[in-house]
């Protein structure tokens, strides 16, 4: 019996595939799924068998957000401290995704709504099916659009003005529009979205993991820095990587006219 309420498979190619698997509810989330995601993305940092992660959904939906029956209804009966513990847990899922020093690719096969939209947003690269849609619909159900880090992440991806529109109105965003505003990296036909996502995840898994992880770390850390601090941080990070094994391996491969064999160190 699986330890998760979703499918999670580690591939021999270094790509782990996480598939939300409640297609009858467009892959809605439960309390248990949130807790499992929080723990999993924390543990993956120390899992040497995983070099990149593909996030997708089974069926017509990517993830429709929190289950109305299994999350929203019980929360209405909960105490404030219990509600706060839940919202902190959901935020921890996104925090652990962003802090994971391994690339995450979202293959958005269908609707990514509410928390599902934020999980896709927290991924490093987003491939969308041409029929898929985003919807940051929190305000449409009487909640703040600032949930799970959305108000921090979204302006940095699409700009403040556009983010304000998406978070306040909660309208659906087509794949074509998501591509135009930079919310999607690629749009492909529905039957190619997982294949395209896997190709990206495998390409990243075959790359210099230390360099990719440091790039991700720098991008997130520099958002809160001034320019001078960012320049200094990049100088220190690059000095370390210039002395790392993977860069030396690149140089040896170049001189020997062969492909480099990166080891992530």
SSE blueprint and pairings:
Elements: E1 7-10, E2 15-20, H1 31-43, E3 52-57, E4 61-63, H2 68-76, H3 80-99, E5 104-108, E6 111-113, H4 115-121, E7 125-129, E8 133-135, H5 150-158, H6 160-169, E9 172-174, H7 175-181, E10 186-188, H8 193-205, H9 209-222, H10 227-242, H11 245-256
Parallel strand pairs: 2-3, 3-5, 4-6, 5-7, 6-8, 7-10
Antiparallel strand pairs: 1-2, 8-9
Globular, elongated, flat, extended or rod-shaped: what is the shape?
A: globular
Biggest beta-sheet profile: 6 strands, mixed
Tally of DSSP β-strands: 10
Number of domains: 2
CATH topology of the largest domain: 2-enoyl-CoA Hydratase, Chain A, domain 1
CATH architecture of the largest domain: Alpha-Beta Complex
Number of helices: 11
**Strand share of the residues?**
15-25%
Low-confidence stretches: none
**Spatial sequence of strands, sheet with the most strands:** 1-2-3-5-7-10
Helix content: 40-55%
Radius of gyration, taken over Cα atoms and rounded to an integer in Å: 19 Å
Structural class: alpha/beta
Written overview of the protein:
With 265 residues, the chain is an alpha/beta fold. It has two domains: 7-205, 2-enoyl-CoA Hydratase, Chain A, domain 1, CATH 3.90.226; 209-256, no CATH class. Helix content is 49%, strand content 15%. It is built from eleven helices and ten strands. The chain has a six-stranded mixed beta sheet with strand order 1-2-3-5-7-10, with helices on both faces. The protein has a four-stranded mixed beta sheet with strand order 4-6-8-9. It starts with 6 loop residues before the first strand and ends in a 9-residue tail after the last helix. The mean pLDDT is 96.
